[in-house]
């Protein structure tokens, strides 16, 4: 038996353990074609991709503050974890935290996928997102 055989045999348990820490719930939508409603408001159509467990966390304790023109921005490195089988996500997909038991302040927050996640041997999808604020 090789190390690779041992890892393959244990991998379902590794994924189970990673998923057991995903205590939040989210929905993910993919924006599509622009639609105009009866009042003339234009918004993208949304296709539901995923509803289920997830986890949000900042990966760095401090943010950066880049400047563009006369405006200063705050950029925080944020990671959104989902089960490996949750689906294939793409840049600009919209993630809404629908329930966050341990931190109710996360409920209702909306994020945009900025970097998809790909990895051999992943125990979870660990996708980079940025928060969407008004």
What does this structure look like?
13% of the residues lie in helices and 43% in strands. The model has no long low-confidence stretch (mean pLDDT 89). The N and C termini lie far apart (55 Å). The strands form 2 sheets. A 6-stranded antiparallel barrel has the order 1-2-5-8-7-6. It has a two-stranded antiparallel ribbon with strand order 3-4. It has 134 residues and is mainly β.
Q: What are the secondary-structure elements, in order, as H or E?
A: HEEEEEEEE
Strands, total number: 8
Molecular shape: globular
Q: Count the helices. How many?
A: 1
| Low-pLDDT stretches | none
Largest sheet: 6 strands, antiparallel, barrel
Termini, distance in Å? 55 Å
Please estimate the helix content: 10-25%
Tell me the β content: 35-45%
Largest sheet: spatial strand order: 1-2-5-8-7-6
> Please, what is the average pLDDT?
89
**Radius of gyration using CA atoms only:** 18 Å
- Structural class category: mainly beta
SSE blueprint:
Layout: H1 3-20, E1 24-36, E2 42-58, E3 67-68, E4 71-72, E5 78-82, E6 94-99, E7 110-115, E8 125-131
Antiparallel strand pairs: 1-2, 1-6, 2-5, 3-4, 5-8, 6-7, 7-8
């Amino acid at each position: 038996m090789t190390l690779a055989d041992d890892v393959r045999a244990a991998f379902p348990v590794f994924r189970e353990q990673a998923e057991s820490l995903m205590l939040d719930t989210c929905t993910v939508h993919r924006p599509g074609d622009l639609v105009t409603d009866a009042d003339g408001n234009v918004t993208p159509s949304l296709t539901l991709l995923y509803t289920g467990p997830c986890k949000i966390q900042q990966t760095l304790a401090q943010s950066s503050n880049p400047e563009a023109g006369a405006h200063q921005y705050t950029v925080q490195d944020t990671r959104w974890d989902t089960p490996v089988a949750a689906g294939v996500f793409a840049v600009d997909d919209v993630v809404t935290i629908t329930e966050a038991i341990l931190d109710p302040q996360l409920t209702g927050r909306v994020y945009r996928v900025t970097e998809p996640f790909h990895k051999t041997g992943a125990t979870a999808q660990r996708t980079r997102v940025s928060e969407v604020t008004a």
